[in-house]
User: Fold Bifunctional protein GlmU from Methanospirillum hungatei JF-1.
Amino acid sequence: MTVCVILAAGEGKRMRPLTGSRPKVMLPLAGRPMLEHLLNAVMDAGITDFIFVVGYGEASVRNFFGDGTSKGISIRYVTQKRQQGTGDALMTVRPHVHSQFLLLNGDMVLHSDDIKAMLKTPAPAMGVFTSNHPQDYGVVTMDGDIITGLEEKSLHPKSDLINAGMYLFEPGIFEELETIRPSPRGELELTDALMTYIQNKTLRGVRLSFWADMGSPWDLLGVHEEMMREIIPEHQGVIEEGVIIKGDVQIGSGTVIMSGSYLEGPCIIGADCKIGPHAYIRPGTAIGNACHIGHSSEIKNSIIMDKTNVPHFSYVGDSVIGSGCNLGAGTKIANLRHDKGTIIIGGTDTRRRKFGAVIGDDVLFGINCSVNVGSIIGNHCRIGPHSLVEGKLEDHTVIRR
Assistant:
């Protein structure tokens, strides 16, 4: 029986400040950690035996998934004690793997049909995907189904095919890993161990029909939008008279939707929330547990994590907000440039025409604050009343007016 090894040890530094208190794989997509979406896809492909390689924030992964009994599967954990690259992460499972195994990066979303196709392919094999910006990834060249080249982040990519971080290996990969040396950034790279396979023309490529990688917070929001279209409506909370619900909406237990509120699916409201009165929840929004969205507040196409409050007269659009935040009355987050151009953050083009802000955990706003498009606000910031926020604020920044 094939074992699935999932690499889930990394912090995800490019996801900061959202990874300040949680590992990247536990960031939410459509109301569930991204790792759970990946796990479910692998389960749908018929695999029931898993090994998670954990490290940064590993307690949150272990506590959430346990030993897999609740899902009818087996999950074992191996700790990567130091972040020394994907090759080092894979070597940690060597004592536990004795036959063919599936290897996945934990920070991506796959479809189960592609996983099934991979399992039918002779090992060694690697998943490849067509990208419109291959220069951001490992660029793959192929001759038929044989991979002939792999070049990391080439400025002049030789194809539009990229390494999707999905592999099927035999235990012989560990012998190849023993031969590699640290890369210029001081890490043992799994891709370096593939070069012998490529030179011998034994590494097969499996073209994936769907693949989503979360490297930056705006990638998180883009994948979230796609996954929200597949939610199943469920109403477990209390819905008062005068509430209007249109489309597919999930409402968790203990949540109260107060009179005059308008919920337009697809959207997700977690457990033990208070929504309204007269709140407007627009499509693409996922609100975590124990949140309060108050009177005349509008939330559109955003991820709001647990215990965050947007109490009244505020607007949040196309944003990702961490846990334990509070937006003072009248706080507005802009999400569209006047020239309708794509949003640039720290010199990086997000390729999104609409994007508001990324806000870390435990950020408190005074009344009537304005947040400009593409702002990054670190954890534990304190924003005084009537402040304008733009650009990037480091953790623990205090703005007084």
